[in-house]
Amino acid sequence: GAGVSQSPRYKVAKRGQDVALRCDPISGHVSLFWYQQALGQGPEFLTYFQNEAQLDKSGLPSDRFFAERPEGSVSTLKIQRTQQEDSAVYLCASSLGGLAYTSSTDTQYFGPGTRLTVL
Amino acid sequence: KQEVTQIPAALSVPEGENLVLNCSFTDSAIYNLQWFRQDPGKGLTSLLLIQSSQREQTSGRLNASLDKSSGRSTLYIAASQPGDSATYLCAVRITGNQFYFGTGTSLTVIP
Hints:
The structure holds two protein chains of two kinds. By secondary structure, chain A is mainly β. Chain A has strands at 5-7, 10-13, 19-24, 31-37, 44-50, 53-56, 65-68, 75-79, 88-95, 109-110, 114-118.
């Protein structure tokens, strides 16, 4: 596609519900990132995929958060038993190269985000 | 852990004014630094990327500088326009996949 797309754009969940957020990266992009952006804050790194491999999940705040990218393209971020503190905008970004890409000019292209509100 | 700080948090200027946004980071071992723009309800758009070996980058009315040794970057916007109103974020890349963002500067350009 022309850019990174995310769905749904808005999600309201009751506390304790499970949610799944989808990211469609730019076709052919090797790297995929998930970020969490709280109101008035900058994005915070959650996890990183190189193709289908999840190489870094150090930013996931708890074991209720799970991400996958089974075929190296579309990715899903799942949050189980949502809590109010999970309310945030979840941003997905993709970039062309992977970790072996030696150039430091590889820019990230961001999707519009999914705004999650947990009541 | 790398910490990125942006000053000021908010800025309001009249149209046509030149302005400077500041970004500082605590660990100088970075691969690159990027400036992004974020419009309400939208994702981030990359404006300029400065490699660690570079001192500055320019694109149109935008100029970004990098002083890695002091942990500082500035984004200079010339002849500001109302369409420049947005939140500006800087981000540093410290390893292949680790990016740290500042909290942003909210810019309002008054017609």
